[in-house]
């Protein structure tokens, strides 16, 4: 509020200025325009309508009704309430027999029916069972058996958990533990030619087998020698730095004068990447065009795929032939897998860094054969034979012969204690 005695300056704005437009009150104009728009939306302006479209004469009231005395509002409300009560009443039963009347009387009295009583009893029994299960689950079991006794009593013969925890029942082992890791027998039957008094044909077959194995081993040694020893000469024949330099620089300085200057390379002939300019950058129009092209290509591929699927209906015979062929191939592959599984059962697996090698065959030469078993000199060693059998049957990883000293990876350090020091 302005202080008393002070004169407030009245703002004077020119009506012809745009700045003063917002100072003018135009609410009445806006209301009139809004009313006019509403009239146009709801059927037209009232000023332009005829009287017949705006007013009508009510002819539904007869002259007899005018002379009747008007009812009071209370009487009208009572009559309306009666009509509502009649509408809310349930419809009468269709069967006018004793059973229907008994059902209606029971419903009015509020007593449950037999079906309702049965359902209530079932719910009560289910709830009691649920409470019993909860109570039994919370309770801890009580051991009434001496678990340290040598023989377990038959007080709990059916409690598998109790027997398993107290070590009175063995844990069921998986089926894979019962299967042997190799199909090779523990004691292999020797070749018939290895007998102390063999037949001529069987002995020759054994010699041939031993000879082929020895020849194969010799071929492997020669192959390693050709690949390593012959390609890498000895130290006396190995090339030195001087010979290597002469060999690498042979023919480089022939016919070239050292005084002549080497010409500078032509920089214009070097290939460089073109510079990146502003006009090479993709604008919005090019990006939209490229996007539309990719979308069109994708739709074309989808249409092609759909056309292929539709055409598959007309090639049912070829599809059946393909399915038959795939089934046959699957059967062949299953047979091959079964054969491979059988071969793998007789194969020694790679269980360690070293590979298992078959031991040498124990063969007696012709001059070493004797006709008496008492004069026969034994070959091999029983312990080494069992050790080799364990490695061949995948029971042990391949390693050296038993009793062989393992080679150290590093040289152990030697410390001399003061109490054991040899003082001279």
From TrEMBL:
UniProt feature, compositional bias: Basic residues: 278-297, 402-412
Keyword Nucleus: yes
Pfam families: Nop53 (PF07767)
Keyword list, A-Z: Nucleus, Ribosome biogenesis
Main location: nucleus
InterPro entries: Nop53/GLTSCR2 (IPR011687)
Cell location: Nucleus, Nucleolus; Nucleus, Nucleoplasm
Superkingdom: Eukaryota
Biased composition (Basic and acidic residues): 68-85, 100-109, 211-234, 298-312, 319-347, 413-424
Nucleus found in the keyword field: yes
Ranges where the record places region Disordered: 68-136, 176-198, 211-350, 394-424
Job description of the protein: May play a role in ribosome biogenesis.
Stated family: Belongs to the NOP53 family.
Descriptive protein name: Ribosome biogenesis protein NOP53
């Amino acid at each position: 509020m302005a202080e008393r005695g002070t004169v407030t300056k009245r703002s004077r704005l020119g009506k012809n200025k745009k700045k003063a437009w917002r100072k003018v009150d135009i609410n009445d104009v806006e209301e009139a325009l809004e009313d006019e728009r509403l009239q146009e939306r709801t059927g037209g302006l009232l000023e332009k309508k005829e009287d017949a479209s705006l007013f009508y004469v009510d002819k539904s009231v007869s002259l007899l009704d005018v002379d009747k005395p008007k009812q009071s509002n209370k009487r009208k409300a009572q009559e309306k309430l009666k009509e509502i009560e009649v509408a809310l009443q349930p419809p009468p039963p269709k069967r006018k027999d004793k059973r229907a009347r008994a059902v209606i009387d029971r419903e009015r009295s509020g007593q449950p029916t037999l079906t309702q009583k049965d359902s209530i009893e079932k719910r009560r029994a289910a709830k009691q069972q649920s409470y019993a299960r909860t109570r039994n689950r919370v309770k801890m079991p009580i051991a009434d058996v001496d678990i340290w006794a040598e023989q377990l009593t038959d007080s709990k013969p059916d409690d598998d958990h109790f027997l398993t925890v107290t070590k009175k029942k063995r844990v069921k082992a998986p089926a894979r533990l019962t299967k042997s890791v190799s199909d090779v027998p523990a004691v292999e039957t020797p070749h018939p030619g290895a007998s102390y008094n063999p037949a001529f044909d069987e002995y020759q077959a054994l010699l041939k087998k031993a000879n082929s194995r020895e020849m194969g081993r010799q071929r492997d040694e020669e192959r390693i020698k050709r690949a390593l020893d012959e390609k890498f000469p000895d130290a006396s024949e190995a090339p030195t730095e001087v010979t290597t330099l002469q060999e690498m620089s042979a023919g480089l300085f022939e016919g070239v004068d050292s005084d002549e200057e080497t010409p500078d390379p032509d920089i214009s002939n070097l290939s460089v990447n073109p510079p990146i300019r502003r006009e090479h950058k993709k604008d919005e129009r090019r990006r939209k065009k490229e996007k539309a092209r990719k979308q069109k290509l994708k739709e074309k591929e989808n249409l092609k795929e759909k056309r292929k699927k539709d055409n598959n209906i007309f090639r049912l015979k070829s599809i059946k032939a393909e399915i038959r062929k795939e089934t046959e191939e699957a059967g062949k592959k299953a047979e091959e897998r079964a054969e491979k599984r059988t071969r793998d059962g007789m194969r020694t697996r790679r269980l360690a860094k070293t590979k298992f090698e078959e031991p040498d065959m124990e063969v007696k030469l012709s001059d070493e054969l004797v006709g008496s078993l008492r004069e026969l000199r034994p070959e091999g060693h029983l312990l080494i034979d069992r050790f080799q059998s364990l490695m061949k049957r995948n029971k042990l990883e391949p390693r050296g012969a038993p009793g062989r000293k393992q080679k150290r990876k590093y040289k152990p350090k030697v410390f001399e204690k003061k109490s054991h020091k040899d003082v001279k």
